[in-house]
């Protein structure tokens, strides 16, 4: 009985971290949008597509995530609960936050908003990855291409992100100081919060829900 209770508590903590991380990720991305100082690489693309289609960024993010997930099929990637939840939750959380947070005016507001968005994004990344429910669709694309082509993860990731940033910028997405600052700080921030939110193994072993390894993964919406 005690062992079952311990396993249930362990799973409950992981599920809480998963969905809290995804919701906070969407909120953090919205803060970066409102700062107007530059977005994460994939959100540059999402914003550009949003500008061209008239759809909300959250809807575009969800649609692109679903399309990327389809690319997993030829790559023989297996999605986890976190992968599917990523597609469904982040966009909704982003749109909800954009609905209540107005555009920032003046650098005295925009800079702190940008900084808060980046730090919160790092915390969200740590929460989500430490829950070990599988990578996001874009991370899975990166690792899948690495396995199928033999090209290093670093090169694959760089090529993908340069492509999405360039495409998003051409479509009207915002590239700026926030984009650069995000690129150089998200790794250390994610590592810090991964350690802070690490979930110890459940006593007695056994895995209730398919989990992915957090090693080397950085969550992108």
UniProtKB/TrEMBL annotation:
PANTHER family: INTEGRAL MEMBRANE PROTEIN, INTEGRAL MEMBRANE PROTEIN-RELATED. This is Membrane protein. Signal peptide: none annotated. It comes from Streptomyces pilosus. Keywords: Membrane, Transmembrane, Transmembrane helix. The keyword Transcription does not apply. InterPro entries: YczE/YyaS-like. The chain crosses the membrane at residues 54-73, 80-101, 113-134, 155-186. It comes from the Bacteria.
């Amino acid at each position: 009985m005690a062992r079952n209770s311990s396993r249930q508590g362990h799973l409950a903590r992981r599920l809480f971290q998963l969905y809290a991380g995804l919701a906070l990720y969407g909120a953090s991305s919205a803060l970066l949008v409102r700062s107007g100082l530059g977005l994460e690489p994939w959100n540059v693309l999402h914003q550009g597509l949003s500008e061209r289609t008239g759809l909300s960024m959250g809807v575009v993010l969800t649609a692109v995530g679903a399309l990327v997930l389809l690319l997993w099929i030829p790559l023989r990637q297996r999605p986890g609960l976190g992968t599917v939840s990523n597609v469904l939750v982040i966009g909704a959380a982003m749109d909800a936050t954009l609905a209540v947070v107005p555009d920032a005016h003046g650098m005295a507001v925009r800079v702190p908003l940008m900084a808060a968005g980046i730090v919160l994004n790092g915390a969200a990344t740590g929460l989500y990855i430490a829950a070990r429910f599988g990578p996001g669709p874009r991370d899975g694309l990166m690792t899948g291409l690495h396995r199928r082509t033999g090209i290093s993860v670093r090169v694959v990731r760089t090529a993908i992100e340069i492509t999405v940033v360039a495409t998003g910028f051409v479509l009207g997405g915002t590239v700026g100081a926030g984009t650069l600052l995000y690129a150089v700080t998200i790794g250390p921030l994610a590592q810090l919060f991964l350690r802070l939110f690490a979930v110890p193994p459940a006593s007695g072993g056994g895995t209730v829900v398919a989990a992915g390894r957090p090693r080397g993964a950085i969550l992108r919406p």
